[in-house]
Write a structure and sequence with these properties.
Helices cover 21% and strands 52% of the residues. By secondary structure, the protein is α+β, with helices and mostly antiparallel strands. Strands 1-2-3-4-5-6-7-8-9-10-11-12-13-14 form a 14-stranded mixed beta sheet. Strand 12 and strand 13 form a beta hairpin. Helix 6 runs antiparallel to helix 7. The longest helix has 15 residues. The relative contact order is 0.08.
């Protein structure tokens, strides 16, 4: 491991920089510490699976909290596939004490996926309540989602509202090797909730092109198809391309 530390002091202010290289994990920090606040500026983390730039403000008193802006330059999608939601939700007591506001951004180049051009997310965690807003710019359309979940519950539910705007069906469905003859733009407004532990979904509303509301029989079919195909292997595997492809082919 390589470590370098520079420090300056001025009126209760400590600032400096450090470089750490441990087992091919490289971390570069620029920081300043004053009173009960630590600022981390224009810092970098990099290994073979992940590369990112970040700025953070960490407050220690009267409450512990973190505000971060994170820009991902590169991420191996297999890293996401190894995540297990059950392991994250086990530490409920920690989530009660942990407060944070995070902005995360990455683009097509960093994700290595021709379907996603850009992804932006805002995540807020306070007293175990997670509130989020995501925007995904894709080939052929845009997806906006927002929602919340109380992670401290024994069986937490994720309430969500998503708006799918598919402006170019040809480009969008091409990514999943699906042919769609109707090229009219599509708007899909969906509200519902996910049971994160039991892998169940409930759709409250499915509106197509602003005025066509899916029937109860359609909503039941979407629910069963979602659970059997997308939710079968866990929460994070919902985003696998082959899973999305199978789901699209089942519902169109």
């Amino acid at each position: 491991a390589y470590f370098q530390f520079d420090q300056t002091k001025k009126e209760n202010l400590i600032s400096g920089s450090s470089k750490i290289n441990i087992l091919n994990n490289y971390l570069k920090l620029n920081f300043s510490l004053q009173d009960n606040q630590l600022k981390i500026m224009e810092s970098k983390f990099k290994n073979q699976d992940l590369s990112l730039l970040f700025n953070s403000i960490i407050t220690f008193d009267p409450f512990f909290g973190i505000n971060s802006d994170i820009n991902i330059n590169k991420i191996d999608k297999n890293l996401i596939n190894t995540l297990k939601l059950e392991d994250i939700l086990k530490n409920r007591e920690i989530s009660k004490k942990f407060n944070s506001n995070n902005k995360i951004n990455y683009n097509k180049k960093s994700f290595g996926n021709s379907l996603i051009r850009n992804y932006f997310s805002e995540l807020s965690l306070s007293n175990g309540r997670l509130v989020f807003a995501n925007k995904i710019n894709m080939q052929g359309g845009i997806i906006n989602c927002k929602g919340e979940s109380l992670l401290t519950e024994e069986y937490p539910r994720l309430n969500f509202s998503c708006l799918f705007k598919i402006n170019d069906k040809k480009k969008f469905f091409k990514n999943f090797s699906v042919t769609k003859n109707n090229q009219k733009p599509l708007s899909l407004d969906v509200e519902g909730s996910l049971n994160l532990i039991n892998k169940k979904i409930n759709f409250k509303k499915i509106n197509i092109d602003n005025d066509l509301v899916a029937k109860d029989s359609d909503i039941k079919y979407f629910k069963e198809t979602f659970e059997n195909i997308l939710f079968e292997d866990g929460f994070f595997n919902i985003f696998k391309r082959n899973k999305i492809k199978e789901f699209i082919r089942a519902i169109i």
